[in-house]
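Notes taken during the Thursday session

The instructor put the following on the board and asked us to keep it in front of us for the whole hour. The protein is DoxX family protein. We were told not to look anything up and to reason only from what is written here. First, the residues (150 in total):
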Amino acid sequence: MTGRLNSAQPYVLGLFRVVVGLVFFCHGAASLFGVLGGAAGTHGGTLSAGTWPNWYAAVIQLVAGALVVLGLGTRAAAFIASGSMAFAYFDVHQKAALWPIENGGEMPVLFCWSFLLLVFTGSGAFALDGLLARRSTQRQPAAEQTPVAA
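Then, after some discussion, the predicted structure tokens were revealed:
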């Protein structure tokens, strides 16, 4: 059973990355473009450009979410996304109450830790990072390729 689960790990991690990134991307798109119900608290509208910190958070959500979905620069994008959600939690939600269930901060906490997990695990399967790494390895002359330890 463990062997079967371990063999599926990169694929499940890849699906996890796509789902988390897509939900994050949708938050940014809603806030910036008014789609999918619009920005929270605007009754279907958008955020004013340049407003601190919400507009900047929405840009991070849109760009980092797209990069995570594609698996392109996943670790860097996930690191920035994780930090932005930690900031959102401590700057907005934590002031209201100690626990996320009390202060409405469950989503920022889950996003923060999900993205932090991707920083350490990488992108998994179905990622452009892996495709680009394979292409660059194939283009190197044989003398430059370093052997991979088993």
